[in-house]
């Protein structure tokens, strides 16, 4: 056995062709895309059921029940991916995982019980739908409890994710400071808002797809309404992301400056431009949809349409401002460099003040358009009458929001690499080679002592 260990040290396993880093990345990203949809949908569905209860509109009930069925089906695949990811992490990064399980044993323990709890409540909520038809308030509470447990689950995972990027300057035995590490709160806010926006855009895209394929008038009206309802969630919560994202980046800059420089000033700064392009596509497509939908308001609102046209132009202007690069070295990794590269500065591409103006402008204009659209919504629309291109706009937004999730996940995880000089699994503490670096670790020797003391 000793000879085997000398030939193949613990934690030195690899995956053929793609490597172990890519394996973990694929598993995690796929799981996040599914889990985020489940969590966002598990909050939207009971809200829709509640709205159906108080408005007596059957479409809310139909939507909530269909979404609940989808959540139950999707939950199984999401759980399987989570288990596969943990097994892969234990196998490919055993030394790193040993650090994690010792630092966050209490988190893993709570997460296990929450996982059991959400299974029980979620499946009970769906299975007793008919039995509690005459006790609707109680059934709605069941749904919100399931969503609430999912939110607590998310916070447990965010403890680990945030600590890996911004570990606290305190011994790992200090549970409170480990939990409330510098980016824990902004990451939770970012993911909570992002979950609802992500699920909303996907619901809108699915509604658009079904609308284009529907033949009956009843289904066309229902799926037209679904696209509208989903986009209200998607676009409405998207408008909060620039504000929350600024707070999140500020926390990273203060706690892990080298990681911040990697994604904002280093070779990976093109990721911010990519994110702004994706944000621009979703914003412009959403406002275009709202503008088109105003034509089918039950009560004509020509003034609102004219205001929305002006807002659409401003949305496009601020979006262009956000995607202008800071210099001619756009994506050096693939050779997308013009002229003198980094030496050629583009004045309108600087973060201050132009990117701030662009982000603030997008948020304010978006809120203005959303307020106009909600005002028109109060009087109602002629459902089932809409153009094909407006439905294509919803489907494009649904595709782009998935790409946005991948971009944001890659951006956060690549920040710890610090241009691979060295790359970290836990920023400043454990390298990609699973080596502990106490001289740069904010938690100091306590991290190593905690692991050794548990053996």
Automatic annotation (TrEMBL):
Entry's localization field: Cell membrane
GO MF entry, a single one: electron transfer activity
Any one annotated GO CC term: cytochrome complex
Principal location class: membrane
Transmembrane intervals: 22-46, 67-97, 103-126, 138-165, 192-209, 230-249, 269-291, 312-336, 356-377, 389-410
Membrane topology label: Multi-pass membrane protein
GO terms (BP aspect): aerobic electron transport chain
UniProt keyword terms in alphabetical order: Cell membrane, Electron transport, Heme, Iron, Membrane, Metal-binding, Transmembrane, Transmembrane helix, Transport
One Pfam family, short name: Cyt_bd_oxida_I
InterPro entries: Cyt-d_ubiquinol_oxidase_su_1
Family listed: Belongs to the cytochrome ubiquinol oxidase subunit 1 family.
Record's protein name: Cytochrome bd-type quinol oxidase subunit 1-like protein
Species annotation: Rubrobacter xylanophilus
């Amino acid at each position: 056995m000793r000879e085997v260990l000398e030939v193949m040290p613990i934690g030195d396993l690899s995956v053929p062709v793609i490597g172990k880093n890519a394996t973990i990345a694929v598993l995690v990203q796929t799981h996040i895309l599914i889990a985020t949809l489940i969590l966002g949908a598990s909050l939207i569905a009971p809200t829709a059921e509640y709205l159906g209860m108080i408005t007596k509109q059957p479409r809310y009930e139909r939507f909530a029940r269909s979404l609940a069925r989808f959540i139950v089906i999707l939950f199984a695949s999401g759980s399987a991916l989570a288990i596969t990811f943990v097994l892969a992490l234990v196998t490919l990064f055993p030394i790193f995982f040993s650090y994690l399980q010792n630092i966050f044993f209490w988190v893993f323990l709570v997460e296990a019980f929450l996982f059991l709890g959400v299974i029980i409540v979620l499946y009970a909520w769906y299975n007793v739908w008919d039995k509690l038809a005459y006790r609707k308030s109680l059934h709605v509470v069941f749904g919100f409890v399931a969503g609430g447990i999912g939110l607590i689950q998310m916070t447990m995972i965010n403890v680990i994710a945030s600590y890996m990027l911004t570990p606290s300057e305190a011994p790992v035995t200090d549970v409170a400071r480990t939990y409330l590490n510098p980016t824990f709160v902004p990451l939770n806010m970012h993911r909570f808002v992002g979950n609802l926006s992500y699920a909303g855009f996907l619901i809108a895209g699915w509604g658009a797809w079904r609308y284009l394929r529907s033949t009956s008038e009843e289904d066309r009206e229902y799926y037209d309404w679904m696209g509208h309802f989903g986009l209200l969630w998607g676009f409405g919560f998207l408008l909060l992301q620039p504000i929350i994202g600024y707070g999140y980046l500020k926390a990273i800059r203060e706690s892990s400056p080298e990681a911040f420089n990697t994604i904002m000033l280093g070779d990976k700064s093109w990721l911010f431009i990519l994110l702004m392009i994706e944000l621009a596509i979703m914003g412009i497509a959403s406002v275009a949809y709202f503008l088109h939908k105003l034509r089918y308001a039950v009560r004509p609102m020509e003034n609102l349409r004219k205001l929305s046209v002006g807002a659409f132009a401003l949305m496009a202007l601020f979006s262009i401002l956000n995607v202008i690069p800071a210099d001619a070295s756009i994506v050096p990794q693939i050779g997308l460099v013009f002229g003198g590269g980094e030496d050629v500065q583009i004045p309108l591409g600087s973060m201050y003040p132009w990117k701030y103006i662009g982000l603030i402008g997008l948020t304010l204009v978006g809120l203005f358009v959303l307020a106009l659209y909600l005002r028109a919504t109060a009087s109602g629309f002629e459902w089932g009458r809409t153009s094909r291109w407006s439905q294509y706009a919803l489907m494009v937004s649904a595709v782009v929001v998935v790409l946005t999730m991948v971009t944001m996940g890659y951006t956060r995880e690549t920040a710890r690499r610090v241009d691979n000089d060295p790359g970290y699994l836990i920023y400043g503490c454990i390298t990609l080679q699973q080596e502990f670096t106490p001289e740069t670790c904010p938690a100091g020797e306590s991290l190593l002592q905690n692991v050794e003391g548990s053996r």
